[in-house]
């Protein structure tokens, strides 16, 4: 687990329904994913008032993607984790009244289960560990990428997490 002190884990976007850094507008949630990533066309369609808040990209042969979305329903925000296989992910929180803090989103990503055999936990190192038997650890360093338009430090956080995973894997 990366040293969390350089990261603002309390950071919380003002809204998921305005572009990051923009104070106005309500049309952001209906924006559809761009179709330039291999595998995006296989993700389920987003619902009305739903926006992708983070994307986990796997450097697999098929370019697997896992989207974390938020949908406004009245005064609540409801979260989903979706992949093209219709996996039934288990995670917390399922809903909130305000956007998640970066720390809460990390908790959601790192605590998700329901994928991979053995009910492995997390959406990053679990995929690296799953592939470790057939691949040298060094080649799995960049196997998982986490990005977000709403959480500017999230990708760097998970790059550090990957480096720490590699150090642990090589030490074994």
Characterization of this structure:
This protein has one domain (27-161). It is 20% helix and 19% strand. It has helices spanning 102-111, 125-131, 154-171; strands spanning 50-58, 65-73, 76-83, 95-96, 144-147. Mean pLDDT is 87; it is low at 23-36. The chain is built from 3 helices and 5 strands; from the N terminus they run E-E-E-E-H-H-E-H.
Task: Describe this protein with a few key phrases.
172 residues, alpha+beta, five-stranded antiparallel beta sheet, 3 helices
Summarize the structure.
The chain is an alpha+beta fold and 172 residues long. Helices cover 20% and strands 19% of the residues.
Q: What are the SSEs and their pairings?
A:
Layout (H helix, E strand, L loop, with lengths): L49 E9 L6 E9 L2 E8 L11 E2 L5 H10 L13 H7 L12 E4 L6 H18 L1
Antiparallel strand pairs: 1-2, 1-5, 2-3, 3-4
């Amino acid at each position: 687990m990366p040293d969390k002190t350089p990261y603002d884990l309390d950071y919380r976007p003002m809204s998921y329904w305005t572009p990051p850094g923009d104070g106005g507008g309500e049309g952001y949630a209906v924006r559809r994913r761009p179709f330039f990533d291999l595998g995006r066309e296989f993700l389920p369609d987003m619902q009305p008032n739903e926006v992708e808040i983070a994307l986990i990209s796997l450097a697999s042969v098929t370019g697997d993607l896992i989207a974390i979305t938020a949908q406004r329903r009245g005064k609540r925000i409801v979260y989903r984790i979706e992949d093209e296989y219709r996996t039934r992910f288990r995670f917390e929180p399922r809903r909130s009244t305000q956007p998640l803090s970066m720390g809460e989103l990390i908790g959601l990503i790192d605590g998700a289960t329901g994928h991979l055999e053995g009910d492995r936990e997390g959406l990053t190192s679990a995929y690296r560990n799953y592939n470790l038997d057939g691949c040298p650890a060094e080649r799995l360093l960049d196997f998982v990428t986490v990005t977000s338009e709403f959480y500017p430090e999230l990708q760097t956080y998970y790059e550090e997490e990957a480096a720490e995973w590699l150090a642990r894997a090589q030490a074994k």
